[in-house]
Request: fold
Amino acid sequence: MTADMSVAIGSMKLRGPVLAASGTFGYGTEVPLLERRALGAMVSKGIFLRPREGTAPPRIAETPSGMLNAIGLQGPGADALVRDYAPQWAEWDFPVLVNINGESASEYAEVTSRLDGVPGVAGFEINISCPNVEQGGMFFGNDPRAAAAVTEVVRKRTKLPVWVKLTPMVSDIGVIARAVESAGADALCAINTFVGMSIDLNAYRPRLSFRTGGLSGPAIRPLAVHLAHQAARSVRIPVIGIGGIARAEDALEFLVAGCTAVQVGTATFINPKAIAEVHDGIASFLEARAFKSLADLPRYLPRD
Amino acid sequence: MLDAPVTGKRQVARGMFVIGMRAPEIASAVRAGQFVNLGWSGGPLLRRPFSVYRAEGEHIEVVLKAVGGGTGQMLALEVGDRLSCLGPLGRGFEFGGGAREAVLVSGGLGVAPMLLAARDARAAGMKVTWVHGARTAAELCAEKDGDAVIWATDDGSQGTPGTAVAAAPDADVVIACGPNRMLAAAAERWPEAQVAVETYMGCGTGVCLGCAVPLKRGGYDRACKEGPVYRAADVDWGALPSHLPYAVVA
Reply:
């Protein structure tokens, strides 16, 4: 018996619950086909309206069970994405959502308009949680009014699914979650990286040129499970869990804790087959326990 | 990605070791300057990039120094232990163009891609001059492959006193690898040299953008995809840190 692994994120039906997290799968074109077979969906590298160079190196530093990154949302801009990548996405058998960014609410709106209706673009993940840009990003994500305002302007520009990727750097993620739900988000992605810093004891300065970076990897998993759970019990829309998932058991923790789907990120850097292995592992878990579908998985989700 | 059993280990200089592994698909495909990204059970979170030092039959070798926890663990591996091996990755050296002579200039661990470079240069019909430098005689890699061989040490304990770059002759094709500071000096002398840079690296497959190399024309590209081999004059050396605690070069 093969368990039914399909999930619905709002109106969007996905063949599986394991998604590629933004910034860890490029534009999908870098990854061999073999590794895409189990993808529920892909969220592309974060894009701004215009090209961005990104931060100076060093951009990454390994820390215990984790990594700090400050890439600075290097990217070719919306026009290049439409020209070079979207046509390929249109041919694929899973949806691609674009992680969108702006230094102002109006820039988020402009990016949305530029991409809305482009074949290959199946939806949007609003990034109000990137810790590695001087303006925009996390600034919007830790103020419920700003978070709602950005969500609202994007919502007005598209009928496609709009997800909002939340930052963990808040005192109460439920407040932000409810604010963006009210502003029209179809789903929440919880969470983006934590802000961290690591010092080079030979140079007496931070190891990253940007000073701080976003911490990802297994180091943040229990923090992420908690925050995704808090978000899930605060809203009625689906929550997509993110944070340190490398194995099926990790993903199942998020799913039991109330998430509808998960995104795998840093693990892909180490194991290009991570998404396929997590997907297959979840299926095996369900089958071993005689669940007919992922929907039958027991959830721990007391409502606030 | 394949599981490569460790087949042997030998010392080639003070603190510098060669580890061999069985990796048939990589051994047959690898070109000089390309690298593998290695991980192992119980190892650090991220893989570690290594230039392929030698490829013969079904086996490849990499060079390393025990400088961090990760490389220390690697050196503790025994024959039969498995390395998860991703590669060959990156863009290697080019030996087309019909030049008659190649000079291979390496400093310290920069020797890593040079045995394959000598092989590929000869296959392209070139005569090979091997130039290798280190701080002291004890730190020179004992293994070499050149029709002519030049040694250089900072302290003058073997060969020409001074740097490998200073000791090297000119040639139509110059290949260089070593600390980025050394490569910056190579770029001054040979703007057209092909150099393999060192960077921190995340995925090694082009998706994380962690291994950014600053370019003279502005912006960055990826050591793991567009690199690790660059035309020396194309890199903005002042903006490229020279730092690697663990690797060779990637």
